[in-house]
């Protein structure tokens, strides 16, 4: 299963394959960097087509967490975990506790939290076996659902993109297409409706659409991702799984701004330049969706929602700084964001080599 891991040249410090036969647990924990501190990133539970696909995903996601945490100004490195399987079929208390013991075995090099297919209640179970877990329920002393500040942060990034493109952060009257109305997407719709935007939403789940329509009957519904992409939009907000921006979808995209919550939205690095060439302003995903990790990281210091929300508000200014750097250096925003993150990891990480008795 691990053949070729070292050949990938991904820059990861550690990749751990976890298997508990009794519970059926098959998981991979990837620690990309601890230059800024312990690695923090969520646990994704998903029915991958193959173990190789799961490995590809966890490597990409954990690297993204290093950059996300660095840009968010956190004293944390980047990590991620995936549990292979359909969460509706495999998640049991025993499996989650077995996973928690593997997290504990890393001795604090990795802190876990929620992601796709896992929830606050799951983290409460994991916490029975490890203290290196965040995103727990408020009843258990945690920060609760990290989707709250994830959506808020994306909204702040979108406002910054609007100001950069149109000279004002206001979204009143702007037509915004939200792809994915799950944990984060439906909360983002709420922020947009409150801001006076005209929202069009699409999701593969009829239940998710029904929830949005019940809460926001003024929202329009597009019949699938292709139908949404084909619509004239001011902003396209991908909030489902990654890879939605690819060589087939970008030419069809009719939006001036892309700003959404999904991780790894670009199918490959060249898409960033393609968007720029088409005149589409791209707000890097790991920059604008950092509100969730800001929320759960605050839990490590004794959670205070108001403090965490203030930190997440800074995504507005950081997004503006990325766009300014991109223009100054003549590079796409994704490249500019990478440079800012890498600069902080190098400068602060270097201090770790200075012995402090």
From TrEMBL:
InterPro entries, sorted: Aminoacid_DH-like_N_sf, Glu/Leu/Phe/Val/Trp_DH, Glu/Leu/Phe/Val/Trp_DH_C, Glu/Leu/Phe/Val/Trp_DH_dimer, Glu/Leu/Phe/Val_DH_AS, Glu/Phe/Leu/Val/Trp_DH_bac/arc, NAD(P)-bd_dom_sf
Residue positions binding NAD(+): 180-185
SMART domains, per database record: ELFV_dehydrog
Ranges in a coiled coil: none
Pfam families on file: ELFV_dehydrog, ELFV_dehydrog_N
Any GO BP: amino acid metabolic process
Active-site residues, record numbering mapped to chain: 80
Protein name stated in the entry: Glu/Leu/Phe/Val dehydrogenase
Annotated source species: Amycolatopsis rhizosphaerae
